[in-house]
Write a structure and sequence with these properties.
Helix content: 25-40%
Number of helices: 17
Strand content: 15-25%
CATH architecture of the largest domain: Alpha-Beta Barrel
Structural class: alpha/beta
Bound molecules: 1-deoxynojirimycin
Number of domains: 3
Shape: globular
CATH superfamily of the largest domain: Glycosidases
Largest sheet: 8 strands, parallel
CATH topology of the largest domain: TIM Barrel
Distance between the termini: 43 Å
Oligomer: single chain
Length: about 550
C-alpha cells in the first residue's frame, strides 16, 4: 500500500477494454480474462500505460455487467478471481497499470442487498435502496423518466412501494444517504485496492446524491416523463460524498480516479478535479458528445457543427488549465465509432481516423483509447433489430414508435448512435469471427473485419495502429503536450480544427481538416510561423504549408 500520491496519471495513456467483446479463449462467444492476458503484449506494443477494464464482476448481464450481483466475484463466463489476480500480475510485470470500473450508483436487483431489501419494509437492508410510496392516485412517487426509457420507478407488489432505478428496472439505485451503504462500498473498494488495482473509473458517479424531497421534473413537449436530472445530477451532497470517498479510501493509495459525469459543466469539473478539494483526478464530460443531436436526445440526429465542437474543447481546455485535469476521449463502450461519426468511414477511413486521433491526442489531458479505435474500427449497420443486443436500443425503439417515429427513422438513429456500434467483437484478424472466438459470438462481428483487423494493421507500417503508437511516443517525448497552454486558432473556419499549445521551451501547432475537400489556411501570419517548423506527425504524404488535403491532420513543432 503506497501512501505517497503522485501525478503519474497526467502522463499516462489509457486503453479501455470491454471484456465481453475483446478476446474469447473458451469458445463460448464471449471474451474473458485469459483472453485479455493473451493480448497484453499487443497493448504494450501500442505504448499504453493503463488499462481500464469495464465491469468483470458477477452479474446477470442485463446491462453487460453494469448491473452487479456480487462486487467481490468475477462473472463466471469471464473467469475467476485467480484469473483476475493473474491479469493484475501480468499487467504490472509489463510496467502497466489496471483500473477497474466502479459501479455504485446502483446494483443488480439480484444483489443480495436488494433481494433482502425487497422482502419487507422492516428488513435491515430496506434502506439500502430508495423506496417510496406512490402518489395519492397510485402513480409513481415522481414523474421522472429512466435513462433507458419508461418510468424511473418500479412498483413492487410484495411491499406495495416503488423503488427508484435511474437505469433499467434490474438496476435499482443505492441509497447513498445511508451510512451503512457507504461503509460497505468503501470496504469493497479497499478489497480491490488491497489486491493492487491502480484506481477506478466511476460509473455515473455524479448521480449518487438525490434530492430527498423527490420533486417532479419538468415535462418537455412530446415527452411522457419528467426530467429528474436537476434532482440527481451533481445533487445536494455529491461533493461531500466525493470527499468522503477520498478521505475514507483513496487517500491511502497511489491510484487514479476518473468519474463518468453526464451533465457536468467545466465549472463542476473544476470543483471535482481541483487537487485541493481532495475528490477525483479527472472526469468524463459528455458535452462534446452531445453536439450532434437535438435537445440532448442522442437519437434525434443533427450534423456536427465544427465551430461548436472547437469552442467546446476550447472551453474545457481553458477552464481546467492550471486547476483540474481533462480526460480526452472520442470513443467508449457507449459511443458510436468516431471515424463513422466525425470522420469518413468510406474512402478516407484510414486518413480521417488518423486525423481525429491527432486532433484529440495533442490536447491537454489524459487520452483514452477504446478497443479497436487504434484500428479505425467503424460503426456497424445491422438491418434487423433482432441483431442488436443493447437494452437501451430496445427500450428506445418502443418509446420512439409510441410517439410516432417510423421504423426507418429509428433504424437510422441506431446505425448512427447505438451503443452496439462499439460493442461488436474486436477484430483481430481476417479468419472466421475476426479471430475473436471459435464459437458463436454473442453479437455479430462487423462485416468489415477482412479489411480492418489488428493483424493487417501490425503488418502495415502506415496503419492506424502505428499512428496511435507515434502519437503516444510524441506525448512521452514532448512536455508541451502534457503541460502547454491551449490556444484555439482559425476559430471561425468551418472545416479546420486548429490550435496551438505553448509550453516552457516548445510550442506546437495542430491543423486538422475535418472535410473531404482541400482547404486553404486563411491566415498569413499562421502560415508564416509554420515555414521553419518541424513536422512532428502527419497523415499526408503530399503535405504543403498553407493548404490542407482532405482529412489531413498535421502537427508542427516550433
Ligand atoms: C454508464 C455506463 O457507461 C453504461 O454502459 C451503463 O449502461 C450505465 N452507466 C449504467 O451503469
Amino acid at each position: 500500500m503506497a501512501k505517497s500520491r503522485s501525478d503519474w496519471w497526467k502522463t499516462s495513456i489509457v486503453y479501455q477494454i470491454y471484456p465481453k467483446s475483446f478476446n474469447d479463449t473458451t469458445g463460448n462467444g464471449m471474451g474473458d480474462i485469459q483472453g485479455i492476458i493473451e493480448k497484453l503484449d499487443y497493448l504494450k506494443k501500442l505504448g499504453i500505460d493503463v488499462i481500464w477494464l469495464s465491469p468483470v464482476y458477477d452479474s446477470p448481464q442485463e446491462d453487460n455487467g453494469y448491473d452487479i450481483r456480487n462486487y467481490r466475484e468475477i462473472y463466471e463466463q469471464y473467469g475467476t478471481l485467480e484469473d483476475l489476480d493473474q491479469l493484475l500480475d501480468e499487467v504490472h510485470a509489463r510496467g502497466m497499470k489496471l483500473v477497474m470500473d466502479l459501479v455504485v450508483n446502483h446494483t443488480s436487483d439480484e444483489h443480495p442487498w436488494f433481494v433482502e431489501s425487497r422482502k419487507d419494509k422492516g428488513n435491515q437492508y430496506r434502506d439500502y435502496y430508495i423506496w417510496r410510496d406512490g402518489k395519492e392516485d397510485g402513480s409513481p412517487p415522481t414523474n421522472w423518466g429512466s435513462i433507458f426509457g419508461g418510468s424511473a420507478w418500479e412498483f413492487d407488489e410484495e411491499t406495495e412501494q416503488y423503488y427508484l432505478h435511474l437505469f433499467a428496472k434490474k438496476q435499482p439505485d443505492l441509497n447513498w444517504e445511508n451510512e451503512d451503504v457507504r461503509k460497505d462500498i468503501y470496504d469493497m473498494m479497499k478489497f480491490w485496492l488491497d489486491k493492487g488495482v491502480d484506481g477506478f473509473r466511476m460509473d455515473v458517479i455524479n448521480f449518487l446524491s438525490k434530492d430527498t424531497r423527490y420533486p417532479d421534473g419538468q415535462i418537455g413537449e412530446n415527452d411522457t416523463y419528467g426530467d429528474g436530472g436537476p434532482f440527481f445530477v451533481n445533487g445536494p451532497r455529491i461533493h461531500e460524498f466525493m470527499k468522503e470517498i477520498h478521505q475514507e479510501v483513496l487517500s491511502d493509495y497511489d491510484v487514479m480516479t476518473v468519474g463518468e459525469m453526464p451533465g457536468a459543466s467545466p465549472e463542476d469539473a473544476k470543483e471535482y478535479t481541483d487537487p485541493q478539494n481532495d475528490e477525483l483526478n479527472m472526469i468524463f464530460t459528455f458535452e462534446h458528445m452531445n453536439l450532434d443531436c437535438v435537445n440532448e436526445d442522442k437519437w434525434n440526429l443533427k450534423d456536427i457543427d465544427l465551430v461548436e465542437l472547437k469552442e467546446n474543447f476550447e472551453k474545457w481546455q481553458k477552464s481546467l488549465y492550471g486547476v483540474g485535469w481533462n480526460s480526452l476521449y472520442w470513443n467508449n463502450h457507449d459511443q458510436p465509432r468516431i471515424v463513422s461519426r466525425f470522420g469518413d468511414d468510406g474512402q478516407y477511413r484510414e486518413k480521417s481516423a488518423k486525423m481525429l486521433a491527432t486532433c484529440l491526442h495533442m490536447m491537454q489531458g489524459t487520452p483514452y483509447i477504446y478497443q479497436g479505435e487504434e484500428l479505425g474500427m467503424t460503426n456497424v449497420r445491422f438491418d434487423q433489430l433482432e441483431d442488436y443486443r443493447d437494452i437501451e436500443i430496445f427500450n428506445m425503439y418502443d418509446e420512439k414508435r409510441a410517439i410516432g417515429w417510423s421504423h426507418e427513422r429509428i433504424m437510422e438513429a441506431i446505425h448512427a448512435k447505438g451503443r452496439d456500434n462499439a460493442r461488436t467483437p474486436m477484430q483481430w484478424d481476417d479468419s472466421k469471427s475476426a479471430g475473436f472466438t471459435d464459437g458463436e459470438p454473442w453479437i455479430a462481428v462487423n462485416p468489415r473485419f477482412k479489411e480492418i483487423n489488428a493483424r493487417a494493421a501490425l503488418e502495415d507500417e502506415n496503419s492506424n495502429f502505428y499512428h496511435y503508437q507515434a502519437l503516444i511516443d510524441l506525448r512521452k517525448k514532448h512536455e508541451v503536450i502534457t503541460e502547454g497552454k491551449f490556444e484555439l486558432v482559425l476559430r471561425d473556419d468551418p472545416n479546420v480544427f486548429a490550435y496551438k499549445r505553448v509550453g516552457k521551451d516548445e510550442a506546437l501547432y495542430v491543423l486538422c481538416n475535418f472535410s473531404d475537400r482541400t482547404v486553404k489556411i486563411d491566415d498569413e501570419g499562421l502560415v508564416e510561423s509554420l515555414r521553419d517548423a518541424e513536422v512532428w506527425i502527419t497523415n499526408e504524404d503530399q503535405g504543403e504549408i498553407g493548404k490542407l488535403q482532405p482529412y489531413e491532420g498535421v502537427v508542427y513543432g516550433v
